[in-house]
Amino acid sequence: MSSHASSSGPEPTRRDMLSLVAISGTAIGAAAIVWPLVDSMNPSADVIAAGAPIDIDISKLTPGQQIVVLWRGAPMLIVNRTPAALKTLQDPSLVSKLSDPTSKVLQQPAYAENWHRSTKPEFAVLVGICTHLGCLPGYLPNPDPSTPAPNWPGGYFCPCHGSKYDLAGRVYAGVPAPYNLPVPPYHFVNDKTLRIGENPTGVVFELSTVVQM
Questions:
Q1: Calpha distance 33→203 (Å, rounded)
Q2: Does the 8-209 domain belong in CATH 2.102.10.10?
Q3: What span, in angstroms and rounded, lies between the C-alpha atoms of 109 and 103?
Q4: What separation, in Å, do the N-terminal and C-terminal C-alpha atoms of the chain show?
Q5: Which residues contact 212 (CB under 8 A, 6 or more apart)?
Q6: What is the Cα–Cα distance from 97 to 95, expressed in whole angstroms?
Q7: Which of 4, 25, 50, 169 would give a disulfide with 126, using CB separation of 3.0 to 4.6 Å?
Q8: Whether the predicted model's global pTM rises above the 0.85 cut
Q9: Is 187 a catalytic residue?
């Protein structure tokens, strides 16, 4: 990491990078996070501060769409993945380019240790913080030729240092980020409601136990 440090001052911390990118995120353009949806779906500030589980209505989340909510001060990415996206996640040519395709590193609960890293294949639930320096990766499910990552089928792209993830949050090999995006504790209360911050019955998992946020 020292190669990124400026000679005029200390290297920025992960917290500094997160704050910086949160402020300048609108400059990412098509990769920018859709914050208006965040505001309309967040619970009250005191609930967020307490770290209590939060319920999200996913009934209007259309295939290919992402929404972002805050839990414990961190962005949670919720995506309704299309059938085509799920097929891509299993493509051997993509899998061969990933650093940890089978989720061997503890970045998720046991119920997300599968090829789609989720409890329901169509829904991804990820912590939206790059595991390199804590930047906010942009959602690019269908990148165009202008994307600064040629021959890439899409997923998440970190504009700070070029780290790439697929739509399961699995990191590509040869990028600065060392690990897959974390998966928070969650479960589906019913077909319309996702609860973040609470595991399925009988399962114990805390986000604080992952290798790196």
A1: 31
A2: yes
A3: 10
A4: 16
A5: 107, 131, 178, 179, 182
A6: 5
A7: 169
A8: no
A9: no
